[in-house]
Amino acid sequence: MTLWVCLFRWLLANIVHAGSAFLCAGTLRLPTLRVYLVAFAAVGLVSILSVKPDLAKERSQPAAEGIDPATRHGASTLFMATVALGALDVGRLQWAFPFSTKIQRAAFVVFIAANALQIWAMAVNVFYSTALRLQPERGQHLVTNGP
C-alpha cells in the first residue's frame, strides 16, 4: 500500500468520522468536539507516517488464516457507536453532567498519551496487526516461557 493510498484512506476516514460526529451532535459549535477531531486526525497522520509501508499493507490486508473476521468489523462498529453516543450526549441530549475544564484537559492528555503508546507499539513491533493470529510466514513464533 503506497503512502498516497494511506493518506487518501486517512482523509476519507476523517471526513466520515467528523461528519458523523457533527451530525450526531447537531452543531459545529462545540470546541471540545473540534479539538478531539483535530487530535484524532493528527494521531492518525502520525501513525501513517511512522509505520513502514510493507507493515501498513500487512496490517490492512492480513493473511486470512487464523483471523476472526468479526473482530475487526466489531471493533470498528463499537468505535463509531462510541463516537456517535458521545457526540449525541455533548450536543443534543446532554445526559451526562458537565465536566470541569480540568477534567476535560486531563482526559485529553490521557487520550493523547494512550494513542502515543499505540503508535509506538505499531512502529517498533513488526508483528503488530489488526488480525489476531500468529505470523509464521514472517518469522513469528509462540513464546511459551518467560515473563
Question: Can you offer a commentary on this structure?
Answer:
The chain is mainly α and 147 residues long. It has one domain (3-56, 75-124). 68% of the residues lie in helices and 0% in strands. It has helices at residues 3-25, 31-50, 53-60, 69-93, 101-124. The longest helix has 25 residues, at 69-93. The relative contact order is 0.15.
Radius of gyration computed on alpha carbons: 18 Å
Envelope shape = elongated
What is the makeup of the main sheet? none
* Low-pLDDT sequence parts: none
Helix content: 55-70%
Count helical runs. Answer: 5
Please tell me the overall pLDDT. 84
Proportion of residues in β-strands:
under 5%
What is the terminal-to-terminal distance? 35 Å
Report the count of strand segments.
0
Main structural class: mainly alpha
Number of domains: 1
Keywords:
147 residues, mainly alpha, 68% helix
SSE layout:
Blueprint: H1 3-25, H2 31-50, H3 53-60, H4 69-93, H5 101-124
Helix pairs in contact: 1-2, 1-4, 2-5
Can you summarize this structure?
The protein is mainly α and 147 residues long. It is built from 5 helices and no strands.
